[in-house]
Amino acid sequence: METKVWIIGSSSGIGLELVKLCLQSNHKVIASSRNAKKSEELLQLKSTYTNKLELLDIDVSSNESVTKCVEEAFTVFNDLDICFFNAGVYDSMPLEQWDISSFEAMINTNYLGAVRILKPLVSYLEKQKKESRVILNASLSSYFGLPYGGAYSASKAALVNLAQSIQPELLRKNIYLQIINHGFVKTRLTAKNNFDMPQLMQPEIAAKKIFEQFNKPYSFEISFPFILSKFLRLISLVPYKLSFSITKKFLK
């Protein structure tokens, strides 16, 4: 049986690398982003994997676009096995440089974008009457709010909290919901950072770690890299007096 995968947020970084891995493993793939049909990288892959790859444009900030695209996604290959939500917006800023529009963009894409997708997506997956998987790309920053990253980590923490809330309901529908909490990945988004990023990964490595989970026994959370994930988890568990004494050292 061929695995049918829908990757939302696939024009660059982890999403693009995951598209490549899926195609190389003979999966059927739907690649979506705002301008998927104009992406040179995706069009090049389409010319190689003509019958395995379909491109669908989606704007996760638009209810109309999401509703239309979800319907189309389920007609391309008749059904879906895995949906990976990878759409994301990122910015880092100190308090003095807060831009409310940046806050709104991150919440609207990183969190509400997933909410918009989930409602119609779950309805279609449930009708398939077979096991399926929904994967939400979150972040290790969801563990604890770090200096200058409050807007981004808040959107990812909200996404994780949402996933925790609906996981029991989805499991009853034979839909296995997973979250990916990963560290720093070298992309056009993290290129904005002007600070050291511990255990910075190439997108190919991060995508491979995610892809490897597709055929592994189900677990709700996938987190990596190991050292950074354990460090940030520890910060979230210790008393605030200690955790804040650590995070204030990140200030410039």
Overview of the structural elements:
- InterPro entries: NAD(P)-bd_dom_sf (IPR036291), Sc_DH/Rdtase_CS (IPR020904), SDR_fam (IPR002347).
- Pfam families: adh_short.
- This is Short-chain dehydrogenase/reductase.
- One of its GO terms (cellular component) is cytosol.
- The protein has one domain (4-250): 3-Layer(aba) Sandwich (Rossmann fold), CATH 3.40.50.
- It contains 8 helices and 7 strands; from the N terminus they run E-H-E-H-E-H-E-H-E-H-E-H-E-H-H.
- The longest helix has 29 residues, at 100-128.
- Helix 2 links the parallel strand 2 and strand 3 (53-57).
- Helices cover 46% and strands 15% of the residues.
- Strands 3-2-1-4-5-6-7 form a 7-stranded parallel beta sheet, sandwiched between helices.
- The N and C termini lie far apart (53 Å).
- By secondary structure, it is an alpha/beta fold.
Summarize the structure.
This protein has helices at residues 13-24, 40-48, 63-76, 100-128, 150-172, 203-211, 226-237, 240-247, and strands spanning 4-8, 28-33, 53-57, 82-85, 132-137, 175-182, 221-224. With 252 residues, it is α/β, with parallel strands linked by helices.
Spatial ordering of strands, largest sheet? 3-2-1-4-5-6-7
| Number of structural domains | 1
The H/E string reads: EHEHEHEHEHEHEHH
Which stretches are poorly predicted, pLDDT < 50 over at least 5 residues? none
Helix segment tally: 8
Strand segment count: 7
Approximate helicity band: 40-55%
**What would CATH call the architecture?**
3-Layer(aba) Sandwich
The CATH class turns out to be Alpha Beta
Q: What fraction of the residues are assigned to beta strands by DSSP?
A: 15-25%
Helix/sheet category: alpha/beta
CATH domain topology: Rossmann fold
Please state the average pLDDT score: 95
Distance between the termini: 53 Å
Rg, rounded, reads 18 Å
Largest sheet: 7 strands, parallel
By CATH, the superfamily comes out as NAD(P)-binding Rossmann-like Domain
State the shape: globular
